[in-house]
Structure formats: C-alpha cells, structure tokens
C-alpha cells in the first residue's frame, strides 16, 4: 500500500470542450479514515458524460464542482483500512468517491459489491448506474411494447447498449445510432439490434430512419440530442414516448444551442417527452440490479467495457466519451485487487 | 328561409399568414337534405386556431382542406328541414359543418344542444370543444395540484381562460400570458388569476415570470409557443408537467421555426411534455360538459365571447385570432333562431 495518494482536481472551468488543462493531478499523503470511516483503494473509476455538467458553475441536477476541489465519480474499490466502520479490509465496495488512488468514506456512503453477480467492474456498468438508467428509462419512460419501433442514440455506449437490449426483450424492433461501423456491427451482430445506423456516414438521418424504422418511432431513448434527435422527432408516431436521458452532443456548446422547434410535432402525435434521472428510482435499485444480473447470466443482455489503464489517464478516458471512443462502458483501471 | 346559400371555399393555400384572398365566398341554391339527413341553418360558426393547419397540404392531425372545397368548423344551428332524420325542424344542434348559411348533415354527425345548460353559443365555447380541451388538458396533462404554480399562454382565449380557472379550482397559483392590458384585467379581476402578464408590454418574459411565478412553474398549459414558452421552460420545477395544446405563434411561419433546444432542461427537471388533442378524450366528453356546466352555473368558471356579425365576416374573425383580437371565444353570428 502506497503512503502517497494521487488525485485529480478541477483545475479550471472549461469553456466549451474540456481538455487536459481542465484537470490537475496532485499528490498528497494517503488519507486516514476518521471514526466510522474506511479508506478505499480505487480499482476502477467510472467516467460518465453527466460529469461535464458538474464542471460548469450553473444550476444543474448534480452539484457543480468547485475549482480546485477533487473530481468525483463512481468507484469500485477495496477497503484497505477501517476505523470502526462496518466494512473490513479486503471488502470490495462501490460508491461516489474521488478520482484518486485512495479515498476515505463513511460506510453508509458505500455499497458492497457482490462478485457472484459478475466481474466487479460491472458494478459501474451494466449492473451499476448506467445499467439501471437503461432499465428505468426503457421500462418506465420509453415503454417499448411488442411490435413497437424503439430507437436509441449513443446505442453502443454504456446506457444505450443496455437500453436497446431491454427494449428487444419487450418485443420491440430496435434501431440504434452509433458512430462507427465497428459499433454498428456490435449492435447488429452481438446485441441483436434490428438495425444500426452509423451517423458519421450519413447526414440524412431522416432517410436512414425511413429505411430502418419504416413504421415510424413509438419509443425513443435519447442520449445524444441535436440533429439526430430532430430527425427522430419527425418520425414519432401517435402516442410515442421519448425518454431524455442525455444530450451529449450539446454538453460542450458555448452558446445556447438552437434547433427546430419541436412542440408543434407533439400536438399531432400527442407524444410524451420526459426527462430521466436514475436517482429518482433509488427505492427500486435492488430489483433493477437483480433483473439485470439475471439477464446478464442468461446471456439476454450482453455488455462490453472499454478500459483505460492508469489513474493518470482518467482525463483522456473522460474526454474520449465526447469523441465516441468507447464501446460499452468506459472505465479507468486504477489498481488490482489485493495488490 | 332563403332559397340561396352562401358558403366559403378555400381559395388557395396561404403562404405564411392567410389573408382575405385565402377565402372565396360563393352562392348556390340552398342544399336539400338526402335521405336520413337534415338541413341546418347556421346560427353560430366557430373559428379556431387549429384551422390554420387544415389550410396546408402537409400531414397534420386534422385532414387538410382541398383548394376549392368548402371550409368547415364547429357550428350551432337550427334544423330547418328533415328528410326522415331523427331531428325535427326547430331543434338546435351542433356539429362540424361548412362555413355556410345552410348545410346538410346526417343526424348521426350532429349532437343536440341543451339550452338549459347555457346560451346555445356556449356549445362552441366553454361547453364545447374549447372548454373540453381546457378541461382534459388541465386535469389530465398539466395536472396542477394545490400549491403548484400553473402558467397558461393565450390566457384570455377560449381555451386558456377556462384552463386557468380549472387550475384555480385545484388550488394552484395561476399566471396567464395575454396580449393587452384589457385582457390582463379580465384575467385578474374577472377570472381570479393570481397574475396576468401583458406580453406585448415586455420582452423580458423571464423577468416577468420571476416576479409572477417566484416559486417556479409546476404546470404549464401552452397555447402559443415561441419565445414565451422558451422563458417558461427555464422556470420549470422538478417533475413539472407541460401540456402542449397549441402553438399559435408558429402556425404562420414560412420556414421551420428555430429556438433554443429544450431537451437538456428536461433532464434536470425530469419534466414531462405532452401533446394534447381533445378528440382522444371523446369517451369522456359527457362528464366534461356536465362538470363545466356546473361550474358555469355556480360562477366558478366565467366565460366571455367575442362575436363577429355576419357570415361574410368569418374570414376576418379567423384572421383576428392571430392578432389576438378576441377575448374569450371568437364566434361568428350567422343567423337568429326562428328567423
């Protein structure tokens, strides 16, 4: 166990797209747990698009980070020291911790990771926040039914890939937008999507949808926003449901993004458009994790992870999300268990 | 009873804002009812913003009118001739008929008007389609609750004025946007709105809302769209509901109207935005009419009508909707009962 600790601070608020200068890596002594706390050694760190919002000062659903303060994110780690807390050294836990080699936390802010459910990294992906987001966003908001056409953007990502497979389980035709031929092959060949659209190979998203979703769109799970979403809205059927989970294409905008006004389309379709935050479903997380674990075990839900090695490369892993560099869940591997 | 009939045809499709040349008044012989039909003499004709959509060729929820074909709308009229139909001469009926002095219809396409519920003209307003739109849009889509702040645009119009009063009955704080000081006085003094905003006297809608809706917006009933709606969206509270009933500010646009993208705001608020067509609630129309008639009788819902005299002036009455010339329901008085 190292006596020193590395951690990332928010060096400055990004204007538009963040870059390496947004982050500052500092060294300090390994933190000591206070009474009732543990020290956790980071094994995997999650980077997620929503973190971009926390870098800005404005109001959002997640509290803004202060400049000079540590960044935080989902972590799977190993307890290395316990100061009278309910976890023991060696326990594998997950929680919202610093982007660091080590972090202290109260036991009540951590959850045990059950290694019987799958590799421990899945607690940050298919069996963690992204999986649960897909689960509730699909089942409770987009609500695909048998025979429906379900469209998802960011379809090869941590949330979209699971959302599409859950929609498939409900009997819908599933169409996904993704940013490379490799991703489209992943959707169609590995995940069983009915059609994938490589949005970087077309600028006529409407024509691509006319082909992939000839009966229109009944349920839309949006992780991306912008012009793809504009095209999907022109294809919404009567009583369609739209789950707005993310809008990654807009997060780095420096000015208010403009687009075609969509409310008129909602009148003729009576579509319902609803924002989604997984935290609202917290009382039902256990059920979601149980269902997802079953589907993973049965092979009904497949997942993939893109793993960047080394805490020092966490900023690159984060920045890569906006370039679509990941397939499936983007993780940063910080340490090995039992090292 | 006249032997001739006047009726309006769609002379041409408007490009942008319609004008008098959109309409052509023609004369013909008074139509004879076929078997099972009646001839109805028009007493009141309704003009409504949604008719603008029927003037265009594109897809919409209401079938487009063909050029050279008669315009249609809600009519209250008197049966003057019956050819074996279930109505008798003298019966007062309502239905979707031509913009004409006389029109024939099957009895099954007409509904009796109950004069005990109120003046017969109310079958086109507070006790008709606009009242029912307000009823279902407020209670089933915007869902104001006690203590909520409810905002409505087109607040002095046929739908908005009733929507605001229904929201008031549920215990919400009610704020209305309208286009003149006279309308604002109507909202505040006659209808019991908590605040009215004359949008023609401010261009900082957000600042006006900061004052009128200091606790944010929980329920929004939108008849207008455009920049006012943009401002309301910036004030939406968590779990807000938006009923998209109309977008009159956009109906005459010649190019795709652009505006600030709103989906990001839905994530942080988890707001639900839903289009509204009153026809979807047809199985429950009777209940709505009964409730509305009770509220009108008790004085809990007030209504006003703006009456234009003469069929020949129907186009002006329609065009005036887009200038905000009406307070309450805009009607065209075409004939007197028993003439």
Q: Could you describe the 3D structure shown?
A:
In chain A, helix 2 crosses helix 3 (158-169) and helix 2 crosses helix 8. The first copy, chain A, has nine helices and 16 strands. Chain A is an alpha/beta fold. Chain A folds into two domains: 4-125 and 304-333, Medium-chain alcohol dehydrogenases, catalytic domain (Quinone Oxidoreductase, Chain A, domain 1), CATH 3.90.180.10; 129-279, NAD(P)-binding Rossmann-like Domain (Rossmann fold, 3-Layer(aba) Sandwich). In chain A, strands 3, 4, 5, 6, 7, 15 and 16 form a seven-stranded mixed sheet that branches. A six-stranded parallel sheet of chain A has the order 10-9-8-11-12-14, sandwiched between helices. Chain A has helices at residues 51-54, 129-142, 158-169, 181-190, 205-212, 227-233, 263-269, 285-298, 314-321, and strands at 4-10, 23-29, 37-46, 72-82, 92-98, 102-106, 110-112, 149-152, 173-178, 195-198, 217-222, 236-244, 258-260, 272-275, 305-309, 329-333. At the A-B interface, strand 13, helix 7 and strand 14 of A face strand 13, helix 7 and strand 14 of B. Strand 13 (258-260) of chain A pairs antiparallel with strand 13 of chain B.
Q: Considering the protein shown, what is the CATH homologous superfamily of the largest domain in chain A?
A: Medium-chain alcohol dehydrogenases, catalytic domain
Helicity of chain A, in percent?
10-25%
| Overall pLDDT level of chain A | 96
| Structure summary, number of beta strands of chain A | 16
- Oligomeric state of the chains? homodimer
- How would you characterize the largest beta sheet of chain A? 7 strands, mixed
